[in-house]
Amino acid sequence: MYVACSTLCFSGAPLDDALRSIREMNFAKADIAVREQGGHLKPSDLLGDLTKICQRIKASNVPVAAFHAAFPQPDNELTRSQLRAVSRLARLLAAPLVSVPAADIGADFAQEVERLTGWYKIASAEGVILTIETDSQTLTADPDVAAELCRHVPGLGISLDPSHYIAAQGGPKNYDCLYPFVRHVRLRDSGNKPDAFQVRVGQGDLEYGRIITQLDRCRYDRALSVDVRNMPMPSFPVEPEVRKLKYLLESLV
Known about the structure:
Elements: E1 2-6, H1 15-24, E2 29-34, H2 50-58, E3 64-69, H3 77-92, E4 97-100, H4 109-125, E5 129-133, H5 143-152, E6 157-160, H6 163-166, E7 182-187, H7 208-217, E8 223-226, H8 238-252
Parallel strand pairs: 1-2, 1-8, 2-3, 3-4, 4-5, 5-6, 6-7, 7-8
């Protein structure tokens, strides 16, 4: 296992500056967000000159652990083209993985299996692992449903963000069933109430040691990505918390 950093930790800065900060903080790799909002890489950019984008990212001198993609539309031809492009970019940069959101809560399970099966084929054609993110607003809000999606779409993995289960409505949820499917991890400290989704490192209830132990049992050897968000505006400076969590995770792996 190694410690990476999400560009969303520096979402208020341009992508080049975010990658520079990640390099200067000596993270092993970057976890690059792809979304239309903000000043970083956008899905619409990917339909242009991929070689130019690839060169721009390579110039940062930061290897890429994963792409964290969110598309404007859940599924249509444009969305699939954008997924194909980000998967190709991942291949060009030797990044092994692209994570995407699952369908919203209430979506039809069979239809979601069909959609993710198609998306998995697009990513795997580029030699890239496709994962779905754990998120309280999607079908993966229920860990058992998330695990079932992976069983129904062989090869599909999980990008585990435990904050969505720790700070869940109605109290923390047990997500141990997901560890065999985990292919990527994003972390911040969280309390056990919905209004404590992101708190200062050490003030929450996330059991980093237990998470790493469970991952180790499943022979997980990929990234632990620091994902302390600076949008919307937090009640504390983000950069010191990013450093603090980096040092904590490095002491545990």
